Records
---
Amino acid sequence: MPDKKTIDYTKYKLKPREELDEILFGISNIFVISCLKCYKEFQIITEPECHDFCEYLKEKNIKIAGYIERDFLCNNYFTEKKLKELSLNDAEAIGVISCGIGIQFIAKLFENKKIIALADSFPQSGNATSVVGYHGIALESEKCAACGECYLNITGGICPVVDCAKSLLNGPCGGAKNGKCEVNSNVDCVWEKIYKRLKEQGRKFISDTETRDYGKFKFEERKKLSLSNQASRNESFYGGVYPLERKEETKNLAITNFPDPQEVAIFPSQHTGSPAEVLVKVGDMVKIGQKIAKSVGLISSSIHSSVSGKVISLKKKIHPSILKPLPTVIIENDGLDEIDSSVKLISDWATMSKESLLEILQDKGIVGLGGAMFPTHVKLSPPKPIDILLINGCECEPCLNADNRVMVEYSEQIMKGISIVRKLLGIENVVIGIEENKPEAIERFQKLSNVKVEALKTKYPQGAEKMLVKRLLGREVPEGGLPLDVGVVVSNVSTIFAIYQAIFEGLPLIQRVLTISGDDIVRSGNFMVKIGTTLNDIVKFCFKGDKEKLFSEYYVKMGGPMMGVNQTSLDSSVIKGTTGFTFLKKNVAKTSKENLCIKCGRCVDVCPMELEPLYYAYYGQKKMWNETIKHNVANCIECGCCEYVCSSKISLLSLIKKTKKNAHNKIKK
């Protein structure tokens, strides 16, 4: 918990009653819009001032034509979206309880209405002339204008930038008048205070200081940066972030075969739905592509051996995604690479029925390879009409290049895979979305005449299904809905490649391309890796650091830095949804401790699903699951943008996952 120094940094307060009497004189009814305070400890949902003002209106017999409380009125995107359609015909005026930013925006939004400012904005110091700004997210009582040149060491710990009405370090001054500032008689002359402080400390007064270097970060430059940030926030889709990409290390490295492991640990559960039922026992001999676990029910997928050899154990290991001990089939590789007789191409697929093709995909264990691992045979038999197939080639996660290399090296095979999906869906329209940081992949597909290729601005999380559907097709997936609700099926490029291999090569999903990248990697690259290859084998081959200190000094993520799952065991192994392994060295400096939410609004600014993540933390910590449901927690795609920017260092993603799980259980009951 924060200590007693924690203060309220909110930027406004309700005007005094006598002033309200004056500005509301003659008004018979008013529509009230109140901004819930930001930059303060998030401990209450509503604000006392709002209630107090409504009581005041009742006392004055002023009718309330309507009343709305909103978080972050200054967020023009959400404010316009939520308030634009308000019916205000009966209201004489709109009263706004907000800081000046919110009031000005409401005035712009409703230009034909009289806007009454019901609150006073105020800075966090007596210096209202500083053009640099204040630390709104700081929780300590000290003030700082973030000038970039700290003078506290030579001014006795008193800051002239925020406490002098002129932010005066050098330049003209008319002198103090009776110890008060010449331009503000209510403020003490800070330089007299500095002089007295230094004298009391027995220190020499510094009569002159070096000229401030305004070139370090001029206000004009700050304004340009702010406008640039606003433009970036709305580019391509609302929200999102621009993390360090770190793709250059493996971007141009061709796919190579990862060394065959001596043994593999294959999970029967590596797909959405019911775990597959194990068909083998200890001592059985198996071949490459042989089915070792069969799908159970509709939402399930078959599992196949990725090596030939002997089943030596059926025991539990830590699942790389669920992070709990789950059953595995341990197979010792005999090195003979014997292929099962079931591995044979389907030469007559073009004349086969849709049902027969779907059965093959189910039998071959094809699932979504973008990470969700949803059984492909289910996705490609939608219950609603589909008119567009949208191929996801974004791969917006930092460090990863597996999809990129698959597109570059297997573009023709992907097109053959698309032809299979076209037959299954009964459609012709295909759109491939690829981010601009993959120019070679874009060029490859642009040469293919029968698909539409869209180059997208590089932005995270561009690859989320709903983002793509909205950005490329102008269709908005309804809350709680799926792309199929708007006539779209979205498929990852690697999934399409797996479909090609299943039909044209007869190969079950026993291998996939993944990226190994990060810090202290001696062999980074894009590898074709057999399903069941252990993390221990990957570390031995690729990592040059101290293996004994791996988990204490590095974050080892299955996936990328944003959505990747932190690994806890070297016995974990590659599953169908493994897009890569990223090794990130931990900072030697200790991470700031998690603090209370201060309603800074950053998580709302960056949420691509246009949600309010701060409420998931607030209600989740209180186990108020019904409230999280009201705030549409089910729509969260767990992209991690909110946690990436959280100024209070709250583990929002883990809280959201816990909240979604409990909310789901609440709905089931």
Note: Confidence is low (pLDDT under 50) at residues 1-6, 128-142.
---
Amino acid sequence: MIRSFLTVSTGTLASRLLGFLRDSLVAALLGAGPITDAFLAAFQLVNVSRRLLAEGGLNAALVPAWLRVRDTGGAVAAAAFAGRVLGTITSALIVATLLLALLMPFVIMALAPGFSGRETLQLAVGDARLMLPYLAFAGPVTVMMALLNAQGRFALTAFSPLLFNIALISVMAVLLAWRQDAVHAAQILSATIGIAGLLQLSILVLRRGDMTATPLRISFDAEIRGFLGKAVPGMIASSTPQLLMVAGAIIASSSPSAVSWLYFANRLVELPLGIVGVAMGTVLIPEMTRALRSGDQAAVTHAESRGLELAVGLALPAMLGLIVLSEPVVRMLFEHGAFTSADTIATAHALMWLVLGLPANVLVKALSPAFFAREDTLTPLLATLKGVIFAIVLSVLLGHWFGASGVAASLAIGAWSTAFTLIRRGGETFGFSIDAAARRRLPGIIAAALAMGATLWLATRVTPAFTQDLHGLLQATVLLILIAAGIAIYGLFLRLFGITDWREAISAIRQNQVGDLRD
């Protein structure tokens, strides 16, 4: 399991790092204003749709269903089921894409009511329509990735999303050299997003190997209806962070540049969230489904315990690090070109509040597979909706008083509401099983993260005195040294508290069978 987790995490890390480069170029190309607000509002629509499908949502429903059909009916029945799912979802998304294109003005007004009566609305509608073809490609891509995950083949699905960011980065590099005006640059980027999904689909089709989904056909029989009845709630429940951001953008759209500040702050939160959350959603669900079907309670306990340790062990230090280093990190990544120092300060303030919800969002990713593996997608859905509604109500109040920072704080509170609901419901329904090793290690992990955060904070009290007047490259170097030192300090405290060491990590990886990764 650890080997598979590391494979997915490595692919996700590479994708997120390319995403930072992509967003840094967006900031330099478009800045933070009405044109960027329009582009990001449109991108939010496509991005949330992509996350609903690709990053754990459809995977959460398809993997248990496909494994059940294969176990009961054999490989031929599983291939036929996969063919019906692939054909049905692809056709449904093509129809949805056409309908969204027609109704896009109303969709954007619902997502960003503050754009009404402003030129920003028309810009967002135009950008969103150019991006929409990606949604049609995302359907077959997601089904193919889920089938590979169900077979324990994680490498190709982990690294194929890199093509999305590579395409955008390449186009933006040309636009920066070409010096197009912001409106035309945003339109060209939007069109690039619209066709980027074709690259990902092509690589999966060319490398699908023995992954069969035949015969390919559209069907709404009882089995497919039952699958969709579980898949749709699961897709929504798996996208808690993205739905919270949509809720925040709805409220923030009435304030100039607030959508941009929240977006760039959220991009920093998504790095650790993606590394841990996506990997757990991809790896934990197949692991727990197999354990539950075989009646192996020890394997269930092991999966739940390791998932919780990884969630806390990576999310907590990331949260503390982003709080302490919020302003210099935002400055290094985004303060270029049209993105000003005032935008940096506003984004950093939003980040400090938004990142408080990171542990909660990762906990949701760690807890949800326990429900998905039991084919219960309704409970995570209700928990997600409760958190989103709570966040919207708070955003109206705090956003009015504190602007983008108030909205960010509301989103963090909404994430914790979802996490606490899942903890309570899981305890009441089936009880979460934590082994003795996790009970011993979790307090040490928390203590090590707090010690790292305190040490990093003390270091930042010293460094501003000799970095504030340095060249940008030197400031970036000092910041990278601080980040590396924080990671090293955290590892040292983990070792001192007897949590783990590098030998144990390498041993855990080597003990996994090579057959777990066939791509």
Note: Residues 2-516 form one domain.
---
Amino acid sequence: MSDTHFRTCTLCEAMCGIKIETEGDKVVSIKGDDQDSFSKGYICPKAIALQDLQQDPDRLRHPVRRTASGWEKMSWDAAYDEVARRLNRISDQHGSKALGVYLGNPNVHNHGNILFSLPLLRALKTRKRFSATSLDQLPHMLANLKMFGHQALFPVPDIDRTDLFICIGGNPAASNGSLMTAPGMPHRLKAILAKGGRVVTIDPRSTETSSLASEHVFIKPGTDVLFLLAMLNVIFAENLVNTGHLEKHIEDLDLLKLACHSYAPEIVEGPTGVHASTIRTLAREFATTPEAVLYSRLGTSVQAYGALCTWLVYCLNIVTGHFDRRGGMMFTLPAVDMVSFGALAGQSGHFDKYQSVVRQLPEFGGELPSSTMAEEITEAGDKRIRAMVMIAGNPVLSSPNGQQLDKALANLDFMVSIDMYVTETSRHADIILPPTGPLERSHIDVIFPMLAVRNITKYAGPVFKPADGSQHDWEIFLNLARRLESRDLISSIAAKARFEFMHKLTPDGMVDLFLQLGPYGRLPPGSKLWGKTAGKLISILGKRTPLRKLLEIGPLLRAGQNAEKNLSLSRLRNEPHGLDLGPLRPCLPERLYTKGKKIRLAPRLYLQDLPRVAELIKSYEAQAGKKLDNGFLLIGRRHVRSNNSWMHNSFRLVKGKNRCTVMIHPEDAARLGVEDGQNVTVTSAVGRVEIPAEVTEGIMPGVVSIPHGWGHARPGISQQTAQAHAGVSVNDLTDEMQVDPLCGTAVLNAVPVTLTPVQKRRVRAA
């Protein structure tokens, strides 16, 4: 007899509702949930991989220790004790600076990890923290912090109500958003066109999104900053500025005007490859369309000018009246309001409080750029990292110059990985602690509703009961934290008390507090009960806050209060398809966390970085006409069947045509004598790979593209399907020394490479 379960897919940020049919301990089918309040039945091909993940024979089900003869099973208590003993010994001998932590992308798909990793991070007491942030969205978070006062206050395109959607450096039809959580993105784009609107893509590659667009504009990789400055230049020069209802809540408009003064479209036409008339037309159309939005993503983020690009995109939306307004960029008001309560707990974010040891690159939010990880292990002298804690991450494939990091990890004194697999990274661990799978734990998204194009929330219990002796991620964190903090009798008593309190609370219990205190919760903002309960929650997050300050967010939360919502976890348990809490609403200036509740249009760190942009134009002028015959700029790409390296052990997602290819334009292929499907060697400053060519007119001449997340041919991993479809790692070509100097984001796009054909072997006749 089969059972039916309604869940949210956790394999990307789209939050698609799914209907899972099970028989006993097996998944029978996974389909879209037609009644889901957000996705309305849409799912992409990735969702079915949850079945493979649950039943994967390659998954680790118990702790293991690496030995000379292979991986050896351990008990949980023995594993916890050994990890804590070895980490504490290294910390005692060399200081907490000798410990490092890396948090990978899957952490944001697990509310237990988001809410309960803090005790472990505190117990480690190290500043040597790294994550996928500096390989992805750091420029967005920096702009959030500097312009709006909170690193997690993301503006989101109100795409369902816009008439003009301009997308630069993004491919939402493949990602279903990306910092814009929007399941069924192809349908949403088609809906814009169906009502007479326009979709314009600006990208070096013709993507899945551009195939649905009204217009596609090719742009040379790494020059987006010039294009954006030119758009601003037109808007100021032609008096198209319109700040609307935000006029009294912005500052430094004159400084922004001065910043773009020298970048007329005719100046940037050569370097960008975009005709001046195209830039002028787009700028005018954007400024004069009442409901329009400009969206940017990975292509503009992970490049040498990523921080400037993101800042300029925000500015363009603001000065044209497309901010905090229907159809433009808007802020969410999520049921679990991590932004407001994080601010009260003193966690709005910070930047450049300290720097990395070797290159002096700035921290952001307590994390160092991941590009520095290898050198902080091998080159930082007596301040080097000697032990690493890897939490749900595979930076050997996801961070630049993975070959170098691979070698560095092999030289650590100790490493522990919290991971379900032996991956390219966890193969270096001394101990691996495998958590339960996504269908074996409850689920509620606490991050992606902050990025969603509607205010929504949904909870689901586990589909399967965890196997006896298994542990959730959050239980692993608490057990390690307790042992790390138990140095003597007094600290042991305190650590035990914290452990028992948090273990009893559980992530679900903390979520319930957030829901009841939030903008749709059952506790009235401003009441004594609300203040008392909020105080307890804030103290858990790490800061005691006076009641007076707690009540400061009352007006904002009250604005979202709706008597019909009355949210709590028990209410959500009875809503298997989730709740739609309404469209995005204007919420400024109340939602701002800056001094004086003003948007800072021209933070000084951006203005001080602009001289570097002038050098970009000079570099173009100096190199004009000197193009190497086999010289290219490398960009990444994403496919709807793939997210990161953890997608490739599902045979359903890797079957069919090989997707790990290097795209090259027919003109370039003809010049080099490369045929479609022929292997070519791609070489950069740090490495080389051999990969099949895919000849296509869907990419600019002079540009090549390789997808990220592949490269499973390294020895010692235990993922049979991934190994059978190994591909190559694009991050064996990216250079860890190349970062955006403003914020430290890795440069993963516009990487200079050369390409040469691999000569076909000739078979001699007998």
Note: Confidence is low (pLDDT under 50) at residues 762-766.
